[in-house]
């Protein structure tokens, strides 16, 4: 692994054919060091994309976009409401095949 710093950034060059676990751990450490945090504390899932959007006032929406033909479960923190399906989330968001959820913190939905 070769690293080069430039300003506040850093470029990393990894020249090996390591197992996938190496890359997962390496990237997790690099992201953590850069202050990047997960949108949801959920396991990585190749079939569900998690995207966050914020407005200028800090309002937050979390999109769960499901790309497979099989149902999926995504752990979510309590206190989210699915605006797309008008449901309160209770620790798990169930996604039907090719389903979508648009989550918003319930405190923001009420207020």
List the helices and strands and how they pair.
Layout (H helix, E strand, L loop, with lengths): L1 E5 L2 E5 L6 H14 L14 E7 L5 E7 L5 E4 L4 E3 L4 E2 L3 E4 L4 E6 H5 L1
Antiparallel strand pairs: 1-2, 3-4, 4-9, 5-8, 6-7, 6-9
Summarize the structure in short:
The chain has 111 residues and is of the alpha+beta class. The chain has 2 helices and 9 strands. A hairpin with a 2-residue loop joins strand 1 and strand 2 (9-13).
Give a written overview of the molecule.
This protein is an alpha+beta fold and 111 residues long. Helix content is 17%, strand content 39%. The chain is built from 2 helices and 9 strands. A 5-stranded antiparallel β-sheet has the order 3-4-9-6-7. A hairpin with a 2-residue loop joins strand 1 and strand 2 (9-13). The chain is globular and about 50 Å long.
């Amino acid at each position: 692994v070769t690293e080069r710093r430039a300003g506040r950034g850093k470029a990393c060059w990894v020249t090996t054919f390591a197992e996938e676990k190496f890359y997962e751990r390496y990237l997790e450490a690099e992201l953590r060091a850069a202050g990047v945090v997960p949108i949801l504390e959920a396991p990585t899932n190749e079939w569900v994309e998690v995207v966050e959007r914020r407005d200028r006032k800090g309002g937050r929406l979390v999109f769960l976009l499901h790309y497979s033909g099989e149902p999926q479960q995504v752990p979510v923190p309590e206190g989210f409401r699915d605006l797309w399906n008008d449901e309160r989330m209770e620790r798990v968001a169930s996604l039907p095949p090719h389903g979508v959820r648009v989550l918003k913190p319930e405190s923001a939905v009420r207020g």
